[in-house]
Amino acid sequence: MITLYTWTTPNGRKPAILLEELGVPYEVKTINIGKDEQFSPDFLKVSPNNKIPALVDDEAEGGPLSIFESGAILTYLAEKYGRFLAPSGPARFKALEWLHWQIGGLGPMLGQLGFFAVRSDEKAPLAITRFTEEADRLLGVMDRRLASVPYLAGDEYSIADIAAYPWTEAATSFLKEPLAASLAKKPAIHRWLKLIGERPAVQRGMKIPQV
């Protein structure tokens, strides 16, 4: 059995979407980061970086395996079940390229913008400007890519799309105010959001965990 440790954040929803797409049985354990449950000794055994998501596969080759970091989890599951990541060749590396782009760029920058522009009671104009501009740049990169191909990796839906969707959806909802002007100029992103958002597995995954 696979156990997913997660919470209601964009990173937490990435593996839930993939597990729903794969249609494999799994158990959800909620880690309420608002109550600091990510610092519990039991969770730290699974995720020593005290971050969600994390996953334990009791039936992994060689024995039970714990994995933390959303990108590592997506890659592991895609390879284990042979779906949403090409086994070799250019398509594989395009998917990994855009997966790592999201992990290293889009996610962190939108996360910082969310903290300074939305969550923080004390506003820091310089930080808000910095992260708004970088978010706009990254969304521009994404929009140009999606203007030429249906999915981030090219012609096929992949873990790159699964990784990027929750964060991009957050840009249009939670971060709508600071990014309204930017998103108004990104038609390819809106086309892609509609395409991905209509997938039943994505809709189910975006509701996990149910709290």
Identify the strand order in the major beta sheet: 2-1-3-4
Distance between the termini: 22 Å
**How many structural domains does the protein architecture include?**
2
Give the class-level CATH name of the largest domain: Mainly Alpha
Q: Find the structural class using helix and strand composition.
A: alpha+beta
Multimeric state: single chain
Number of helices: 9
Mean pLDDT: 97
* Number of beta strands: 4
What is the CATH topology of the largest domain?
Glutathione S-transferase Yfyf (Class Pi), Chain A, domain 2
Q: Tell me which CATH architecture of the largest domain applies here.
A: Up-down Bundle
What does this structure look like?
There is one protein chain. The protein has 211 residues and is of the alpha+beta class. The protein folds into 2 domains: 2-84 and 201-205, 3-Layer(aba) Sandwich (Glutaredoxin); 89-199, Up-down Bundle (Glutathione S-transferase Yfyf (Class Pi), Chain A, domain 2), CATH 1.20.1050.10. The chain is 58% helix and 9% strand. The protein has helices spanning 10-22, 41-46, 70-81, 89-119, 125-146, 159-172, 176-183, 187-197, 200-205, and strands at residues 2-6, 26-30, 54-57, 65-68. The protein has a 4-stranded mixed beta sheet, covered by helices on one side. A hairpin with a 7-residue loop joins strand 3 and strand 4. It starts with a strand and ends in a 6-residue tail after the last helix. The model has no long low-confidence stretch (mean pLDDT 97).
